Amino acid sequence: MGITRCSHATNLKGVPTNLEPPSHRSHGRGGEGMDMERRQSEIIDDFVKRAAALYDAAPNLAGLILEATAHPFLFAFSEILSVPSLARLKGTQYSSSLDVLRLFAYGTWSDYKRNAGCLPVLLPDQVRKLKQLSVLTLAEIEKVLSYDHLMEELDVSNVRELEDFLINECMYVGIVRGKLDQSRRCFEVQFAAGRDLRPEQLDNMIQTLNNWSGTSDNLLHMIQEKIKWADTMSEANKMHRKEIVDKVEEVKKSLKADLHLQGHGEIFSEPGGMMDYEEDRSRPKSSTFCKSPLQEATTNGLRQEGGRMNSQPVLRFADTVSNNSSTDCLMVHP
After folding, report:
1. What is the pLDDT of residues 114-141, one digit of tens each?
2. ∠187-209-84 over CA atoms, to 5°?
3. 105-117 per-position pLDDT tens digit
4. Per the count of CB atoms within 10 A, which of 71, 123, 176, 284 is most buried?
5. Contact call for residues 86 and 51 (beta carbons, < 8 A)
């Protein structure tokens, strides 16, 4: 047991390590915790049925209570305590058994020590169970439990014995998870199973649940309002988008119409178009011959003299044209 404690508690430098058993680290609360709750529910149902069947047998009911309080996997007793047949133990020599069952449902080891004179002596299994329940009660109040406080509440004499109990009887059983910090001398609680609600806790629990229900209703109303607002904004955005698309289509159609009309206008207005062609057809035909730069200069000179041209220059120019390979075209109107 000492080797197990050292391997899980802290390293040589006193740095806290996770003391949760490997099975609980791998499965977590979702798997292992649900299995534990299911198993405990089955155990409770079994004891409730057996208690209901023992309606008039007080000794047998007392034996059943002893068995339930010593069971290694049972940590809730209020349902068994509410079985009507158990109420018949009041006023009998077995009434202390009913007090023991009530102690295991709501009390702690310290409560037992204060009332030990009125209660029967507990068996070792019952002692261990009541101390386990005491750890759960302390974990409900504080999440960091000092070693000194735990040793006082559990009636433990040294740290080694306390750590062995927390590891082997609490964490390996699955009712708590946490870390042991030897340097700070404390137990950091990460998870603890719940105990039965004491009668004086019911009003507070009901008020807490009512507050939670009211908060949930308010949140639901706010979410519904947000959904309505989002739907309204979505519809508005759709309509705005449709308007933009329609306007874009109108602009496109208008541009196409303008371009079509502009294209027809250019056919009749631009230089070299149909009008110019008709103009050229109406002009009288002209004589065409080719001229060289020299001939062009001679022609220009004749024009400067008053445009007096006879047949000789023209014939001379024609002879020159026939012998010249580099020529330009000249239009001469009759």
Report:
1. 999 999 999 999 999 999 999 999 999 9
2. 90
3. 999 999 999 999 9
4. 176
5. yes
> What is the distance between the alpha carbons of residues 159 and 20, in angstroms, rounded to a whole number?
18
Residue located via tokens 């010593």: 70
For the sheet containing 144-146, what is the strand order?
17-18, 176-181, 186-192, 144-146
Q: Which helix (H) or strand (E) holds 5?
A: helix 2-8
pTM reported for the whole predicted model? 0.58
Residue with tokens 């404390």: 186
Q: DSSP E strands: which ranges in 121-212? A: 144-146, 176-181, 186-192
Could you read off the pLDDT of 63-114 as tens digits, one per residue? 999 999 999 999 999 999 999 999 889 888 999 999 999 999 999 999 999 9
Q: Most distant CA pair in the chain: distance in Å? A: 167
Closest CA to 175 of 213, 124, 133: 133
**DSSP H or E stretch at residue 111:** helix 109-114
User: What end-to-end distance do the CA atoms of the chain give, in Å?
Assistant: 137
CA distances from 112 to 93, 127, 170, 301 (A): 19, 10, 20, 146
Six-digit token string for 149 = 């406080």
Residue indicated by tokens 């080694």: 160
